[in-house]
Amino acid sequence: MSTAFLDLSEVHAPCAAEMQATFARVLHKGHFILGDEVAGFEAEFAQFCGAAHCLGVGNGLDALHLILRAMHIGAGDEVIVPAHTFIATWLAVTQSGATPVPVESTAGGFNIDPARVEAAITPATRAIIAVHLYGEPADMDALRAIADRHGLKLIEDAAQAHGARYKGRRCGSLGDAAAFSFYPTKNLGALGDGGAITTSDTALADEIRLLRNYGSRIKYQHDIAGYNTRLDELQAALLRIKLRHLDAHNAQRREVANTYLRELASVAGLQLPQVPEFVEPVWHLFVIRSTRRDALARALQERGIATLIHYPIPSHQQGAYRDLVCPPLAATETLAREVLSLPMWPGLDPAPVIAALRELAVKP
Ligand SMILES: *Cc1c(COP(=O)(O)O)cnc(C)c1O
């Protein structure tokens, strides 16, 4: 008996027949780029998020990059990013020509600490990218107040937070624009790469519509030097099916998370995620902290329990950023040493994971 970290075939099983039929339908239609399926998904996902517009793009990194491009953020500009995030948040800033300026997490949590943002603002700062890390919304009201005070754009990296709510409002409607990824393992995942941008800014949406499609509104007429990064029809059609299951899947994840929180509360040596009362996370990942993280992961592996680390090397210590001048980021480096992601997917039975962690606590 072993527990996988994520079992996508189990997640897909209930809608596998519908997905097969959709594949046949799209194949038969023979229209694969920017057709009805993408338009349909965009309308449905915009409504789901509570945003006026949704634009399907090639992946989550491109979604972030196109937002920055459409905001005309580039060389000479600075963008505040969480120090503790997946590197794509930083890479989007770098691709735009701007400089990422890292800010560390809140004391007990994983998301960017609004109290530390203001000290990182300079005359070159143009935007803040808030990441709703592990599916937990960042403190957007606090960030919005800072952004407004300094005339900055506020961008959501919602790649891990499809369906999550902050004070009742969905991620994807909380900033000036939001980037989503539909990488297969995300809460709303395609069967390949995919991404989207949501925004209620019509001018921004129009510019992104050009940027994703060669800078073209009318075929063979190119108003700006754009890119080719589009969600394709087949992925959009499959995502429309999965979107209908998203709230139910997130509720199942919440049930697993609540079981972990309840059953692991008394296990010594584990720091469990602390969720502020104003957010409703969607538990993309269930991340605990332990000062004996590597030994714990090995012991769990020996008992057939798969775990992962999100993320083992902070962005500022990656080769990609060897030339970036950064402030000391000791708390981020500690997080990278201590975080451990437990198995999490809709429908997972967490009992074997809980049993193993309890057994390991008594036999260190
Ligand atoms: C997955 C992810 C991305 C990038 O999405 P891709 O579709 O893989 O390009 C960006 N930010 C965060 C926080 C992510 O988890």
UniProtKB/TrEMBL annotation:
InterPro entries membership: DegT/StrS_aminotransferase, PyrdxlP-dep_Trfase, PyrdxlP-dep_Trfase_major, PyrdxlP-dep_Trfase_small
Residue runs in coiled coils: none
The organism's place on the tree of life at top rank: Bacteria
One MF term in the entry's GO annotations: transaminase activity
Matches recorded under Pfam families: DegT_DnrJ_EryC1
Keyword annotations of the record: Aminotransferase, Pyridoxal phosphate, Transferase
Family: Belongs to the DegT/DnrJ/EryC1 family.
Protein name, as recorded: DegT/DnrJ/EryC1/StrS family aminotransferase
Organism whose genome encodes this protein: Viridibacterium curvum
